[in-house]
Amino acid sequence: MLRLPFFAYLQPRTLAEALRMKADAGPDAMFVAGGTYLYPNMKRRHQEPKTVISLMGIPELHQRTESSVGACVTLSELTAHPPIGPSALPTAARLVSTPLLRNMGTLGGNLCLDTRCNYYNQSYEWRKSIDFCMKKDGHICWVAPSSPRCWAVSSSDVAPVMVAIGAEYRLLGPQGERIIPAGRFYQNDGINYLTKQPDEVLVDVRLPAPNGWDAVYHKLRRRGSFDFPVLGVAAWVRWDGRNVAEARVVLGGVASYPQEVPEAGAALQGGPLSPETIAAAAEAAYRPSKPMDNTDFDLSWRKQMTRVYVARALQELRDRAGA
Q1: Which of 153, 173, 190, 229 has the fewest C-beta atoms under 10 angstroms from its C-beta?
Q2: Is 98 in a helix, a strand, or coil?
């Protein structure tokens, strides 16, 4: 049985109090929301905080309006009736894990989800038997042994949607508040995968105004529930009549960050969303998609599925628009 290590558990009631607690506890402290990922990771000794600071008792983090959603709003709340935000957001939230975990897991937790890898997401004893990996306790990336970087993969379902729709994240830390685009919150490094600092709190997500755009999310996984994505596709289109004024295609599960493919969006702009432009965008998304052999399924097949899932997502947008 995997057991949690001993740790101190703190429950601040305000953001200011949470930041003070983190400053007092130092680098051995971590923030936690629903805990559906941190606590299992602690059991496997991926993270080993001496102090855990819960954010769930802070009312500000549970607030939601038409234009913003607090980081501690649960994934189940995102999918409730009426759902929160554009349709792609509750769709992605509904595809995360299982109902029990969605009842605990939060928007902020999924957006900050640790990167995953078959060589990393194992018990301490299993990892010790291979002399660990560079993401934790070791020096080699077993996926690409000659690589100087970690290739653990981004497995968030909601993050690609936020990047695609152009959402903004509000962060609060000791140096004050800052607002950054969702696309700049992530970086393509399996270890340092967030630009958020450890002493910052993700407060809320600011959603763009509904001004003639639509977005969808499609997910590839082995089972119909519970599994993390081995490919996620978020597609966003802003319409100008029946023509595409702007478009974005973002891939999840194929890199250490939600990977936007500008060439795919460019292939759609300036005309109707036709079978020809959909095929061109799918091909453009296929080329830079480079899944590694560190998650489920054969990696070459997963790459082939990039074309299929991008085409399906764009076809759904076309059908919804009646184009």
Answers
A1: 173
A2: coil
CA distance 150 to 145: 10
Cis peptide, bond prior to residue 291, ω within 30 of zero: no
Amino acid at 219: K
> Among candidates 286, 221, 199, 280, which has minimal Cα distance to 247?
280
pLDDT tens profile 208-237: 998 999 999 999 999 988 999 999 999 999
Residue labelled with tokens 């004024």: 245
User: Side chain identity at 238, as an amino acid letter?
Assistant: R
Q: How far apart are CA 320 and CA 316, in angstroms?
A: 6
Token code pair at residue 259: 């990977």
State how far the Cα of 240 lies from the Cα of 136, in Å rounded to an integer: 48
pLDDT digits (tens, 9 = 90+) for 265-286: 999 999 999 999 999 999 999 9
Token pair 């995997």 in the structure block, residue: 2
Say how far apart CA 273 and CA 293 lie, in whole Å. Answer: 34
- Taking a C-beta distance cutoff of 8 angstroms, is the pair 294, 152 a contact? yes
